[in-house]
Amino acid sequence: MVLTILLGAMAAVFIAYNLFEKQEKDGVVSFKTIALSVTYVILAVIVGSFLDNINTLFQGFHESLTAAKRY
Length: 71
Fold this sequence. Notes:
Elements: H1 2-26, H2 31-70
């Protein structure tokens, strides 16, 4: 859970900085850029969630291998 929040927050900060710089340079930010930025934050949260739960996946896989060896 912590990794998910951390990756999402880092992505949001970097994207907000890039949007601010783009607005300073061009004067306006398009809807396409904002939608793409929101998509990047959502993807960062999904990747963080997967990384948080990867231990659970490998633990279940390891237990299935050891159970097969016991019998």
